[in-house]
Structure formats: C-alpha cells, structure tokens
Amino acid sequence: MRLRLLLPVIAALAATPAAAQFTDGYNFIKAVKDRDGAKATEFLDKNGVSIVNVRDNDTGDAAIHIVARRSDDVWLGFLFGKGANLNLKDREGFTPLMIAVRTGWSEGVRLMLQLKAQPDLQNRIGDTALALAVQKRDATIARQLLDAGANPDITDNSGASARSQALADPRAAAIAKLMKDVAVKKPRPVQGPSL
Fold first, then answer.
1. CB neighbours of residue 114 within 10 Å
2. Domain residue limits at 148
3. SS3 155
4. Total domains, the chain
5. 76 and 111 in contact (C-beta within 8 Å)?
6. In a domain, 118, yes or no
7. CATH number for the domain including 40?
8. Residue 141 and residue 147: Cα distance in Å, rounded?
9. CA-based diameter of the chain, in Å?
10. CB crowding 142-179: b at 16 or more within 10 Å, else e
11. Residue 2 falls inside a structural domain
12. Does 27 fall in a domain?
C-alpha cells in the first residue's frame, strides 16, 4: 500500500529535469515574444545554446522566426550571437530569410546573407527565397539574393523556377532583367545512396 502512494511521487521527481527544460523553453520563447532581453539571457545562460533553437509547441516557430517576423535586427543579431540557426525551418519549411523576404525586410535579408544564411533552401512547396521575392515583385531583395549567389533555376513542386516566374509575370519585368545576366544553373546532384 505504501508503495502505491510513493509511486506518483517518485515518477514526479524523475520527470523534473525534462519538465524544467520544457518550461525553460516555453519561457525563453515567451521572453523573446515579449522582447525581454534580461529574461531571454537568463534562460540562455542557464540552459546553454541548446535552448536558442527551441520551438514554440503551438506555432512551431523558433525564436529566430519570431524576430524575423517582426523585422527586429537587434534581436536577430543577439540570437545569432547566441548560436541561433539561420537556416532553421518552421512547420511550413520557411527559414528566417524567407520570412524576411515575405515581409519585405530588406535590411534583415542583407544581414542574414552576410551571416551566411543559405538562399537556396526550399520550403514545403519548393519555393526559395528568390522565388518569394519574385512573387512579391521585390526587385531590391531579388538583387540582394542574386548578388549572394541565389540560384534562379531551382524549381518548386510544380516545376516553376524563380526565373520562369519572373519571365511569365510582366509585373516582375525588373526582376527578369536582373536574372538576364545570370547564367542558367543546373541543380546540384542529390547526394546519397543510389537505388
């Protein structure tokens, strides 16, 4: 009988470290959302870099996605300095760079490219950051991405590339003109086992 009463207590004590990590992760994300630098630093110091890329259970966003959505270059630099992964994808496959493109945050795009964010990563439907810039008809950001080596010939899940989208949309003529001098790039071969 005594053992039955003690089992829940023992189970609760054994689960404390995992629960504390979850709570710290939640509180870290909350601190980032609230722009509370002191609290965020406290959780980073307590948990090390393992917490900087933790995701919000409700949205799937990491802190780096949150600051990209609000176009916050101060927090972007802070999180990158603490080891945040600039190529981390959210639930839909969007990287912070893609989010910056979608929101028209050209300064964030410039900063992330300087910090070596990969411009050719694709989201779940196959869009790259450059394809998103074409869809927004944002020539400034498209130029930044092309200057950083973005490949205009990567195709999405429907077979369209950023180049083909720019050529097909008369409203994206300025971007098509930028791509005119970019040599056609063949996709890199996929590495891995051959079947």
1. 9
2. 23-179
3. strand
4. 1
5. yes
6. yes
7. 1.25.40.20
8. 10
9. 80
10. bebbbebebbbbbbbeeeebbbbbbbeeeebeebbebb
11. no
12. yes
Q: Which amino acid is at 155?
A: T
How far is residue 139's CA from residue 88's CA, in Å, rounded to a whole number?
A: 25
Return the exposure string of 68-103: e unless at least 16 CB atoms fall within 10 Å of the residue's CB, then b.
Answer: bbebbbebbebbbebebbbebbbeeebbbbbbbbbe
Q: Is residue 102 assigned to a domain?
A: yes
d(CA 170, CA 151): 21
Residues 6+ apart with CB under 8 A from 64: 53, 76, 79, 80, 84, 85, 86, 88, 96
Residue 55 β-bridge partners: 62
For residues 49 and 139, give the distance between their C-alpha atoms in angstroms, rounded to a whole number: 36
Phi, psi of 161 (to 5 degrees): -110, 170
pLDDT tens-place values along the chain, 195 residues long: 555 654 455 455 444 454 444 589 999 999 999 999 999 999 999 988 889 999 998 889 999 999 999 999 999 999 999 999 999 999 999 999 999 999 999 999 999 999 999 999 999 999 999 999 999 999 999 999 999 999 999 999 999 999 999 999 999 999 999 999 888 877 665 565 655
Are the C-beta atoms of 62 and 90 separated by less than 8 Å? yes
**What predicted TM-score, i.e. pTM, was given to this entire model?**
0.83
